[in-house]
Structure formats: C-alpha cells, structure tokens
User: What shape does this take?
Amino acid sequence: TDACTPYRVAVNPEHSIRQAVRYLSNFGRTRLAFLSWNQRNSYSGDEPKTLGVFKEALRQSELVYYPEWARGDVNPNDESSAWRAFYDVWTASPDTKPDGLVITDDRLFSGVTSLLLEANIKVPRDLQIVTHWNKNSGILCPFPVARYEIDPAKAGLMAAEMLQARLENPDFPPTVKYVEPEWFTEGQYDSLHDSSLPRLIRHSSPV
Assistant: This one.
C-alpha cells in the first residue's frame, strides 16, 4: 500500500486490459490496436503500466504486437488528442489495418468516434472495439461496441464505508479497494454492422 495514500478506492485497468484482449481474441481478431492515456501515477510517480500489460496480454493470447498501433501517450483532456492518435494508428500502414481496438478511457473513445464515422469504418465488421466506460457519462455511442463500465456511485459508497471504518477504528489497517467493472456487449457480429443497435446484453465477465 502506498505510504502517501494508504486508504483509497481505485480501479484496476490492467485486469480489464487483459480481459479485453482475450475477448477480442476469442472473436478471431488478431491485429489489435491500443489507446491509453499518459498520466503519471499520482501515488508513486511512476508511468502507468498499461502499455506493458497490453503487450503481455497479446503474448499470452499468442498475438503479434504492432508498436505502430499502440499508443500510451494520449491526453484525455485534449479533445483532439484521441482523434490524432487513432488517425496515426489507422494510417500507419496503407495495406494492413487493425481489426480490434482496446481503449482505456471513455473520453478517448469519444474522440475516436468522430474519425470512425468520417472514415466510414464499419464497427464491428472492420474494427471490433472494447472500451472503458463510466456509468451515466452521457457519452454517445453510434455503433455496437463492448465496454467495461465503472460505476462512480459504487466507488463513492466504497469510499464512505472505508471512511466510516477508519473513524470507528483508529487501528483500521491501510486498505485499497478496487471497483469491479460490469461488462456489456452489443451485438459483436459482422452481420450487425448495418443494423439497428441490438438488445443490450449484460455480462459479469467477458470470457
């Protein structure tokens, strides 16, 4: 547990990245791209390990890592950053394109969406996507994607419970609790790329 913040509620993006890679691999996607944001870890000062986790997950699924398709430096506070990053990914090779994409922040997904529409990239036929999502974020999704959703209300409740335990017991040990995402899939089949959005399906786990 970090000495500066021994009591905290957090998410575990590394676990979700591994699940996302397995999920896409199970659908036969073999050329995966990756977009993540570059924020120094506020607890340790280290760079995030998301890119390394993505590479390791590819290796475990026996998939090839394409460095030109993996970006761990996208700024979620710059609306055009994700657009430019995905443009670089999609145009890196004139002949070969990724057929799967993992995005670790819904704000990055929002930036990518406009380029997907502009370039007429069919989702999920041409590109199957798994993205992070914050519940009730208000972000619109114009095509079927899989998402792992974090509920901020659940995180707030966990933090309140931890605070109460700490107030009631001064010897309450340092604790880190992780908010588990809920997985949703929306018709991840090639034949549905022209169709209206299928019924939302909820899953506790993607694999």
